[in-house]
Amino acid sequence: MRIFILLFLSFVLICCEGKKTNTINPKKNDSASVIEKSILDKKEPNFLLNDTNVMEFFLDYDQKNKEDKVRITTDFGTIDIHLFEATKFHRSNFIYLTKKQYFDGTQFYRVIQNFVIQGGNSDDRQTSIKRRNIGKYLLPNDYDKGFKHDRGMLSMPSKNIENPYKKASPFEFFIVQQQGGAHHLDGDYTIFGKVIRGMEVVDKIAAVPTDTSDWPLQNVYIRKIEILK
């Protein structure tokens, strides 16, 4: 009987020792897990804009991002733009895309002398990838703020297909180059800024030769758009 008790106690001690050694590894694993989690927390979430969340997103974005001046750099020179506070969703959208560096490397892809130059798109696959990584959405037509399509005004075109309310295509914009303005566009498109410096650059771009679809024969690149302090 005594031998049996001694054997039993020895077995218990061995089991306890085994449990003690096993408690060391979980602490190391916990530490590694904390480090891994801290790295994951720093990663930007895979957030995409869509028609459901876009208005709430830019309403909040407008409160935290008040920049209202940008510079468009092209091979023809620079164009400085003042964005209107009155059209806050469109201003916020433009600032958001600028900070995302969406416009860098896009083109003025539609150029009509004595009318408009239109930019923000490209035949480069990278532009499509950028758009996909930002999201798919439209902005409301906010045309009733008292602005007119005068020369130098910045406006946002609308999507052409299945768009009865002429909602704006957020990745693109056009600048009115026409002398005297293009007032037949009033009410159809949202004016959300104006050129404050560089209309001579707009005129140079408007004068480039184009094909039958108004695409410049030599690509006119937007090298970058940056925020001015």
Give the topology, please.
Elements: H1 2-22, H2 24-42, E1 49-50, H3 54-64, E2 69-74, E3 77-83, H4 88-99, E4 107-112, E5 116-121, H5 125-134, E6 135-136, E7 153-156, E8 173-176, E9 190-197, H6 199-206, E10 222-227
Parallel strand pairs: 1-6
Antiparallel strand pairs: 2-3, 2-10, 3-9, 4-5, 5-8, 7-8, 7-9
Tags for this model:
Cyclophilin, eight-stranded antiparallel β-sheet, alpha+beta, single chain, two-stranded parallel sheet, globular, 229 residues, 6 helices
Task: Give a verbal description of the structure.
- With 229 residues, the chain is α+β, with helices and mostly antiparallel strands.
- The chain has one domain (49-227): Cyclophilin.
- Helices cover 35% and strands 22% of the residues.
- The protein has six helices and ten strands, in the order H-H-E-H-E-E-H-E-E-H-E-E-E-E-H-E.
- The strands form two sheets. An eight-stranded antiparallel β-sheet has the order 4-5-8-7-9-3-2-10.
- A hairpin with a 2-residue loop joins strand 2 (69-74) and strand 3 (77-83).
- Helix 3 crosses helix 4.
- The chain is globular, with a radius of gyration of 29 Å.
